[in-house]
Amino acid sequence: MARDGAQPAYDPAGHDTALRSALQEVRAGRWMSMRALLEQTASWSAWTRRTQVLATSAAGTDVVRAWLAEEPDSVAAAVMHTRVVVERALRAHRESHPRTRELWPLAWHACDAATRVAPYDPVPWVCLLALARLDEEQRWAEHRAAPPEPMLPPGPWGLLAEAGKRDPYNREAHHRMLQFLYPRGGSERLARAAGFAQWAAGSAPPGSALHVLPLYVRVERYRRSGGREAALDLHWVAEDATREARQAFHSWFTLTQDDERSLLDMNHLAHALWGALRFPEAAQVFDALGPYWTPLPWASRAAGGGGSQQPVEIFLQARTRSRSAARGGGRRS
Fold it and tell me: What's the superkingdom here (predicted)?
C-alpha cells in the first residue's frame, strides 16, 4: 500500500507485471516478448486490454511491422497491426492532422481484414467501433443503425453487437461506443450518452466493469459545465451520484481482483466515492490502486484543466482524506 503522501506513478501496465516487461521490449524495438505475452493471454478481456496498451506504445515504432514481416501468418501479429494503424488514425484525428483522410481508410481495411483472419476475436470489431467516431456526421449507414432500445440514440450498434458476440460486455467496446456518443451535440447528446451508460450498467452481470461506466459520464458532465453545476461539490453528493458510486463499488470492485481491474476504472471509482463522502469505500479503492494513478478524472477538478502537478495534488488530498476518515470510522472527516 502506498503511503498517504507518496507520489503516485502513471503506468499503463498497472498491476500487470508481464505486460510491463513486454512494453519495455516494445519500446526497445523488440517484439518477441509481446508475442510470448499474447500467446499466454487466456481471456478475451485481458487480450483486449493488453493489445490496446501494447498498441499505444507500438504506434510510434515499426516493431509490429517487423513482427508481421517475420511471421506473416501470425494471427496475433495481424491483430496488433490492426491495433497500431487504428491508433495512428485516432491520433491524427485528435490532432486534426491532414493525414487523417489517408490513415482512416487504411485502418478500416486492416480492421475488415482482421475480422476474417481472427473471426472469434472481439478486437477487430472494437477497432471498428473506435474508428466510428471519425465519421462525425454519421454518413456511414453502419454508424447510424437503430438502437436496441427506443430511448437510445442511433449509432454503430451492429459493431457493438459483433464485439459482444465474441466477448459479452466487453469493456473497451462500450467505452468506444460512449466516446462515439460524446462529441455529437450539447446537453441533449450528453443525456443520451448518460442513458447509454445506465443501460449498459443495468444489463451487465455482477463483476462487470460496465458498472463503472456511469461514473465516466458524470465526470464528462462536470468537465463540460466547467464546475458551474457543482457549487460546494453538490454534483458529487447528489443522490444519483452516490447511488452510481455505491453500485460500481458493490457490483464491480468487491467482486474482482486487482489484476482484472483497469486503473482508469479504479481512479474513477475512488474519485466518485471520495466525492460522495463514502470515505471507507474510497480508502479501499485507493489501497487497491497501490502506487499507481491516472491523470483522469482528477484533472477535471483542477482549475483550467490543471498543470501537470495539480491533478496529482488533488489525488493525494483525496487519498489522505479518505484513509484518515476510514481510520476514524466515519463517513466524513
Answer: Bacteria
Determine how many CB atoms are found less than 10 A away from the CB of residue 147. 16
Task: Quickly tell me which residue has 524495438 as its cell.
Answer: 29
**In sequence order, which ranges of 226-262 are alpha helices (DSSP H)?**
234-237, 239-251
- Is there a contact between 196 and 177 (Cβ–Cβ < 8 Å)? yes
| Nearest alpha carbon to residue 265 among 240, 288, 237 | 288
CA end-to-end span of the chain, whole Å? 21
pLDDT tens digits, residue range 140-176? 899 999 999 988 999 999 999 999 999 999 999 999 9
C-alpha cell of 271?
474519485
CA atoms within 13 A on the CB side of 295: 8
